[in-house]
Amino acid sequence: MVEQNIEIRLAGSGGQGLMLATSLLSKALVSEGRSVAQSQSYEPTSRGGLSRSDLVVSDGPADYPLVSKLNFLVLLDQVAVEESKDMIGDGAVVVTDSKTVTEPPKGDFQLVALPMLETAISLGNRRIANTIALAALCAAGKLCERETLEKVVTAGSPKAYIDLNQDALAKGWEMGLNR
Fold first, then answer.
1. Number of neighbours of residue 108 by Cβ within 10 angstroms
2. pTM, full prediction
3. What is the mean pLDDT of the segment spanning 60-77?
4. How many Å is the Cα radius of gyration of the chain?
5. CB count in 10 Å sphere of residue 122
C-alpha cells in the first residue's frame, strides 16, 4: 500500500510566529502517532520579509520535507500569496487572514477567510494571531484533536502567556469550525 503524504504550509511575514506555530503543529501530530518532516524558509529581514514553514505528514516515514502540492495552507500576509498559489492542490483548505490578505489565491479549493489578526488584537495581543491561525486550520482541516493541540500549546507557552494562548486557541478553533 502506498502512503499518502499530507502537505501543510504556514506562510506570512517575518515576526508573525509561523515557525513556532508549525513546530507546535508538528508536536501535536507526532503525539497522535504521525510522522512529520519540517522545512522552513525566510528572508534575511527579521520582520516583514516573506516567511514560511512547511510540514510533510505521513502515517509512515515522512522522509522528504519539501512540499509540492499543498493540502493545507495558512496565509497571514499578502506577501506570502505569490509563492504558494501555484502549489495549492485541488480540494485543499486555505485559511487566510481576511484583513491582511487582500487578494487571496483563486482555485479549486476551500478558502476560509477569517479575521485572525483583528481577533488577536481584541484578545489583547496581536502576536497571538499565529495561535488563532493554527487552531482555525486544525479545526477546519480536522488535522488533530483539540485536546492534543491544547496540551502542546500549553507546554510551549511561556508561563505569562498560557492563558492568552489558550484563549487564542479556543477562539481560533471556534472560528475554524464555524467557517
1. 9
2. 0.92
3. 89
4. 15
5. 10
